[in-house]
Inverse folding.
């Protein structure tokens, strides 16, 4: 998609406005509105839902086609990073192992 | 008297309160208390910056890799000033998602800040609108965590009228570190060849962030359902599949969580 600098700039500004409006909302409106309990409960599911929705296609659809095989370097590297993140809880170790795994697998696996 | 004349010549702030000896004393205490709160806020934020700065660096590298012009990538760190939204936004920019999808996703990703906003609001009630507007801009995950700890401690002891300076100190510390690390990342990013497949580091960052958050059945259900729907709906136009997948994941999490409490109703 060919997007011009101006359009990209507008999107960035709009992202800023959305973020700022959310942060300012209840600081300004305190006492006048209440957060519904359902929304409060739902908020903790936002990170796992949004992040997984971004991760899964990245691992399972490399290059746009579904690939659930051992020849899929991104899937294997992502699984390695998942194990490291789960065992160590160390973000940077997980990223490092995942990238290393991707480079090794890309060099080893047939294309 | 000579002492007060000297104070007077030092600054405008002192001149106002120096009319009476007690005024000078109170004014001096207020200023030093503010400074102490501000510096304590900066100090409380410092260890967190060790964890935040590498993200700023990675963001800078990845934003360039996703095709964002360097100036916009840098501007986003001050205009948006929200790590997770910047990462998600960068990923979507790179995959050519339309603006409206980027904005809806930004909204969903940052919705948790409503809770922070509600949580700090009672402690900021007495401040001017200008103060509220500045502090709201600085309300990131990390700054919230530091500031609310200070506010909660203040509520249990004597209430401090200067605790918002602590918030400001923590916020400005993170803001400065975020801008600096982004700039370094952008400078580095220009040197990295595309063959390194650094775009994959975004997915890896998301994995490293999401795995520790999967603490119970409802969060795992939210993650799996959102991921599966995202794959099934990957070909939908305008990246709408992402928004639908996120909503499906959130609803699934709520349903799975609601079952034990609500009995047969969920």
């Amino acid at each position: 998609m060919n997007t011009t600098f101006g359009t990209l700039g507008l999107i960035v500004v709009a992202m800023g406005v959305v973020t700022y409006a959310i942060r300012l909302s209840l600081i300004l409106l305190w006492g006048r509105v209440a957060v519904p309990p359902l929304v409060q409960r739902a908020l903790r599911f936002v990170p796992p839902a949004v992040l997984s929705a971004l991760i899964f296609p990245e691992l399972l659809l490399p290059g746009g086609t579904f690939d659930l095989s051992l020849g899929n370097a991104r899937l294997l590297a992502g699984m390695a990073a998942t194990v490291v993140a789960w065992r160590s809880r160390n973000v940077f170790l997980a990223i490092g192992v995942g990238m290393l795994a991707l480079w090794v697998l890309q060099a080893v696996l047939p294309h | 008297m000579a002492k007060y004349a000297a104070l007077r010549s030092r600054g405008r702030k002192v001149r106002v309160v120096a009319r009476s000896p007690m005024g000078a004393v109170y004014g001096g205490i207020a200023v030093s208390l503010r400074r102490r709160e501000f510096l304590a806020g900066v100090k409380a934020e410092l260890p967190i910056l060790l964890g935040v700065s590498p993200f700023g660096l990675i963001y800078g590298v990845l934003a360039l890799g996703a095709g964002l012009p360097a100036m916009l990538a840098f501007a986003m760190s001050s205009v948006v000033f929200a790590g997770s939204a910047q990462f998600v936004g960068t990923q979507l920019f790179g995959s050519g998602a339309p603006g409206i999808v980027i904005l809806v996703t930004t909204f969903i990703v940052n919705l948790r800040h409503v809770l922070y906003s509600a949580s700090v609001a009672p402690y900021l009630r007495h401040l001017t609108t200008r103060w509220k507007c500045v502090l709201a801009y600085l309300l990131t995950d990390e700054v919230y965590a530091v500031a609310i700890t200070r506010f909660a401690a203040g509520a249990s002891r004597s209430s401090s009228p200067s605790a918002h300076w602590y918030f400001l100190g923590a916020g400005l510390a993170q803001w400065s570190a975020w801008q600096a690390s982004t700039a370094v990342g952008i400078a580095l990013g220009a040197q990295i060849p595309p063959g390194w497949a650094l775009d994959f580091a975004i997915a890896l960052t998301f994995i490293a962030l999401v795995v520790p958050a999967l603490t119970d059945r409802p969060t795992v259900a939210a993650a799996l359902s959102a991921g599966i729907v995202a794959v099934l709906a990957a070909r939908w136009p305008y990246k709408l599949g992402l928004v639908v997948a996120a909503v499906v994941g959130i609803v699934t999490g709520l349903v799975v969580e609601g079952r034990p409490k609500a009995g047969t109703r969920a």
Summary: DSSP finds 13 helices and no strands in chain B.
